[in-house]
Amino acid sequence: MRIALFGPPGAGKGTQAKILNEHFGLDTISTGNLIRTAIREGSDLGDRVKSFVHMGNLVPDELVRNLANESIAKHKFDRFILDGYPRTVTQAHWVQEFLAAYKAPLDAVISLSLPDSVIVDRLSKRRIHKLTCESYHLEYHPPPADVDPTMIIRRKDDAPEAVRSRIETYREQTHPVEEFFRREGILIEVSGVGSVQDIGNRVLKQVEQFAELAIA
Fold this sequence. Notes:
Elements: E1 2-6, H1 13-24, E2 27-30, H2 31-41, H3 44-54, H4 61-74, E3 80-83, H5 89-100, E4 108-113, H6 116-124, E5 126-129, E6 135-137, E7 152-153, H7 160-174, H8 176-184, E8 187-191, H9 196-215
Parallel strand pairs: 1-3, 1-4, 2-3, 4-8
Antiparallel strand pairs: 5-6, 5-7
């Protein structure tokens, strides 16, 4: 099974990817984490994408493609979840063509939707562990007491002003990807409002129904 999780920043793609992993044994390929790791390690690619990330802008297709290409190949083109990719129509075309060449097209694209106000609230309260990239939320999922508080940070692009800019960028550049996958017949739309458990139950139900239809 090959799935892409799609939605605006703050939609909870990473959290839902973990739930899908627990139920279906799918590994997550997060381009966001791949990018942040490259930046932290100071690689040539990390230096190239650093300025884009800190400004809250999308990283150019070519750079993201290189990261995704390598990671998908490591997973032998199966049993993975793409988290945060594709984010543009160009990327969507590429990933479908790339996977089709290995007879491994995406089975489903899950699109999480929610109001802008919810996105701003979620991300402004999100915190990240500097080393593990583990994501926390001050209200719903605070860092455990045994975690060093000096390692917990708020990313610059999670500040309210940066979040609003990211939402605008998403609406302009990323939203059209939904229409691309709708035409492909593999888009599953799920409300991203509510508790993690409620959203997870909706996602699992839709994926299971979609899988049954695909088999039939």
